[in-house]
Amino acid sequence: MAHYKPILDETPLVSEGTSFKEITEIVSRVTEQKAPRLWWILFVLSVSGTGILGGTIGYLLWTGIGVWGNNSPVAWAWDITNFVWWIGIGHAGTLISAVLYLFRQYWRTAINRFSEAMTIFAVICALLFPTIHTGRPWFIYYPLPIPNQMNMWPNFKSPLLWDVFAVSTYFTVSLLFWYVGLVPDFATLRDRAKNKIRKWIYGFVALGWRGSNRHWSNYERAYLILAALSTPLVLSVHSVVSFDFATSVEPGWHTTIFPPYFVAGAVFSGFAMVMTLLLIARTVYGMHDLVRIRHLELMNKIMLTTGTLVGYAYGMEFLIAWYSGNPYEKYVFINRATGDYWWAYWSMISCNVISPQLFWFKKIRRSIPAMFVISIVINIGMWFERFVIIVTSLHNDYLPSAWGNFTPTLFDITTFLGSLGLFFTAFLLFLRWMPMIAIAEVKMVIPQADPHHHPEGDDHGHDHDDEDEEDGHADLEPALAEE
Amino acid sequence: MTKRQAYDLPEAPDRPAIWRTLEEKNDPGKRAREAVEETGVQLGSLLPSDSLVGRRSFFKVTGATAAAVGLSGCLRRPAEQILPYSRAPEYTLPGISLHYATSMSHRGDAVGLLVESHEGRPTKIEGNPDHPRSAGATDAAIQGRILDLYDNDRSGQVTNGESDASWSDWDTFWREKATALERAGGRGLRVLAAPSDSPSFLRARAALIARFPEARVHHYAPVGYDNIREGTRLAFGAYLTPQVNYENAKRVVALDSDFLSGEPGAIVAARAFADARRVRSASDDMNRLYVVEGTLTVTGMNADHRLRLAPSKVDGYLRALAKHIGAAPNVPMPPAVTRAVASAEAPAGVPEAWIAKVADDLLQHRGESVITVGHRQPPHVHALAHAINMALGNAGPVVGFYPAADPEETAGIAELVEAMNEGDVSTLVILGGNPVYDAPADLGFAAALERVEATVHLADRPDETSAACMWHLPMTHELESWGDHRAADGTVSIQQPLIAPIRGGRSAAEVLAQMGGIRGWRGYHLVRGTMRAGVGPDLLDRLWRRSLHRGVVIGLPRLRPRTPPLADADVATALGEAPAAGEGWEAVFLPSYQVFDGSQANNAWLLEMPDPVTKIVWDNAAYVSPASAESLGVSNGDMLTIAAEGGEVSVPAFVLPGHADEVVTLPLGFGRTAAGSQGDGVGFDVYPLRTSDAMGFRTGVSVRAGSGTHTLVQTQDHHSMEGRPLAIDATLEEYKERPDFTQWPDHGGEPTPSLGPLWTQVDYSQPRQPAHGGTSYSLMPEDNQPRPDAPPRYKWGYVIDLTTCTGCSACVVACQAENNITTVGKRQVQLGREMHWMRLDRYFVGDDEANPQVALQPVGCQHCEEAPCENVCPVNATAHSPEGLNDMAYNRCIGTRYCMNNCPYKVRRFNFLDYYGDIPQTRRMQFNPNVTVRMRGVMEKCSYCVQRIQAARIEARRRTTVDEQGEISETRITAADVVPACAQACPSQAITFGDLNDTGSEVHRLAHLDRRYSLLAQVGTQPRTTYLGKLRNPNSEMV
Asked: Residue B516: inside a domain, yes or no?
């Protein structure tokens, strides 16, 4: 990784004076000390949510998906809404990790680990839904191209099959990307470990990382390749998810704007979710030096951009519905805004289009309470967006005789809340046991990482702390920087 | 029935012992003994007592039971042994269904049936195309009768008071009773039965009266046709059955008459009426239907002109019409009747055109028009209609009169209750029916019943009346017992049983014959005896088998319709004496389209069949017009209290466009308390409001908003087409102007655009299929050259004529019976999860909200050539067959429901829950073995009855021959070989199925008519189902 050089008087990405050691200390201690009380409270809540999810899924598998409110014509409802929502949230991870990496956006280092973890957990939650929403989940392997005695292939024309490939590819690459990034940091934790079990476990997952030049060289290559691999995925996953709708014949779904519109929406919601999580973790664990207001402001700018893009897409859909002269299409859109589900539509508009516009104001862009609230509002809005697209298109389509409405049941709600529980459980465990900020990467962007940086009082490179192995590989960095 | 013993397997010869465990080797008999003990749990009493004694064996048995219980949870299929036939019963080939001709008495007429039987169990009722009257058609209620056969709530137990008894107890009781009664000449003996058209029943009745001269047989049916009967007696002095040849009627005026679905002979009428509007080209003519009615009925939905009028005012309307017609020159109106209607004024609110223009139209169509009056109207209205029909020269070509099946004057339930109250009745035998539930409320039947010493009720289930009677005798189903029925035109058909009574029982005719002392009272002998009397003993044996085979008794003299002279003075007197129409609100008692009078109230198919008019399921409601609802301040589901002298009912309101103001329609047959597991507590009982002098409608009722609400569930919530070209209609004149009006749905705009796909499509019109079967397109270009030996290709298609579809919903239930479609119950329908493969869309059209026109459209799977559902299924569970059918592979389906979303017609049905659950054994007997019973989580939809296509294919292959040169002469499947269930049942023959590749076929001809169209053609799905645009024939002078 090349080094970050601040342009002119740009604010540094890490609070001035933060040393390599401090960075290691700030991040690593979270996994070494006792968990704070707030962590336990959140963990208990999340695990309860996971339990509710388990119970709901058990009941669902036993009884059939009729326990949800899905019906004819609304055959997909909260199940696929949740799926698309979670996939969308899972989007920011790769964008931050890969795209921003390739574009040399160094500020990503403070948030990439976070967002990658969020991606993994969100995709797990997302994958849950297509699995349990099928009528016979015990045959969920049918869409996989497994040679079988029936001589049957899956239907390669079906967007659902494309989904299977797109999402599983995305999950695999994201997992690898995340894990590769974690290896040097696991090694740091291993080296700091004070008991055998920790040493053994972190040693195992660190894959024998010793911080040699060769290791770093391979690491950087792998990271770059994975970044290049996952960059198209950022665009493809949500485009493919949008094909579920775009390739259908349903008015309100059958539209070419969906791929870019879905990608923009996904980035939008992903950033919002990263923001929500980051603000909590930053406050709880005191990461102010590493995650600075500047990072948050940059993220808010991205949300402002994508939110505006999404708003443009909403407007464009209406325009095309009118311009196409297709009466069915026109009806669906008028029905969205004024029909039985008008409240969902206007919730979506106010949350997704109006609320991010507040980020035009620098004060709001830099206000932590404001951005926290807006990030949650955006996530709610993005959930409504998927609900609006799915339910309002289906409930009144071609034949008025077949029209019908959808009402969620208790189990729709518990499945959704339960998936949040699962997500937060996984995320809290991640916070507790893994370095939540990429230690090695952050070190590369601090001023001291520049070989020509010799400010006064900087003791880097002179003061060897025998107990801290970490400094050892910090020493190697100038050499790497030559690449 | 064979008395052959079950085949015993011979003892296995000595051979080396086969053992699985050492324990077993040492004690080879152990497993066999344990097996015996295991079955001993179920059949304990059959085993020698010592096999169950002792601690060890007790524990073995309980252990085995526990193991069996445990195992049954894991095993997918329980281990059951079957034995093949060692000598098969005659004609029974496993997998090959047999059809037996039988018949059924249905709403005042006999219907010829062909019943499909699989290995001895009847599974599906179809019409008998050879029956001269019903000609193969059925309706929803008949389709539902097969489910009644396997109803688990039917009784099989004779009871006497609180205790169980047997048939021999009853026989003994009756023998003793009869002796006592004979001494008294039968004094005190009364029988109550439904009016019957069965010659055997009438013979038994005569025998009873001969044996007990003082006894009387009373007839009562909650929905009876006494008014029609009395109308003919008033007009002609004899009981006759009017018979309208609608195919000859160019103008039909239906007065409170639901002749297409609710009157006697509706099945025949629907077909004949449709025959007169089967427009095939712009030069064809079609009939015109005027309907005057209070509630919106199936007939009203098909009207070209419809007048909303309270039923009590129909009398006044007909008088005004009669006056107008009588005033025309050269109309031989009988003088006394003319005088009687001379001062008639049209009721308030009837537009002048409805008298003058309708009369003119009728006058212009003398001898080819008809005025038909419904069963709710009093006899004098019927008599007046007969008089007008005769004056217009319609009697003969259009209306004929046959002698009534029961020519005698009979006593009704009112006379019976009177006698009961006076203590004249010591023994009352009720044969069928449920008078405690459905007798007129003013009679107090239940109270009077308590005064009778001995009460006997023959019924198919222990219902409300059985509970109030001393004896309950189980009654057989039509498919379990012998019988005979005389149709309105005098055709007698035999009802032959297809199965031995599942729960035992006797038919009403049998019990009556037994009481009458007929020696051969068992059904078979009774029916044969009746036929012997008809055809003579010499011909009996020769004709019997042929009659059974055809389903119609051969050798009886054919009746000719006649028109006796009109009793002018009597009719005029009756017209003069008739009370004037009442004021204020009136209540109309409508036989429910679902459960009729309540006799089929436990039939889940019928309860879940959407009412053809309101689309309500699992309920009845009080229908009111939009204006009345507004004045009452109620909307759908708000409770209404309808009160009249002596009774009050609370029924939820339902706002029905097209309903007359200040009229409330109350469908009968709901609110049963002892119907069974399905029907109990469904809907609201409105019989308490019905009195013996107001069986059809009751004037002077008070209607007010009650308290509370009730959830009414409809399968269709939205009743406007939203201006979309779905059920496309035009008037006959518009059609003549632009025969392809369906292609121009917005009248003068662009023709419906339809884009083809980007890929090369398979041409299903090729006579032979290509080498590689054929989905509609493929990722790989494939060789479409047909193999020289490829089998002939068919291109199946439907044509549905919206002009002749009446919306009666027979197809919905027929499809349910054929395809093992489950019912889901009210709550699931409310959630939008009904499973019907065929649904009948009903739209209100026109500007007048109070009296809209109706467009009906049956919609099942359209079997699109470019099916949107197929593309999106990730697992290929729904795919194109080589013949272009859109097939479902249930065991491949994982239930993503994507296909359901992507179906623009929303005809796919998903098993959201395990709707069938644990199916009782008797219920399972109904299942069509050629159709998979779907499990939960699986998508299903109309298959075009692919099992019937396959059966026809097998038959055609079987007939295909190879001659000596090796030349194959193939037998093609013809349209007659494959008739899907819906097309088979359709009384008006609106559905045509066949091979679109066969240019000579009817379906090919219809699919190329000028008014054809595809539903949602612009989506590009290219459906195989073609609709023919609906034609209306309004009177240009009345528009």
From this structure: yes
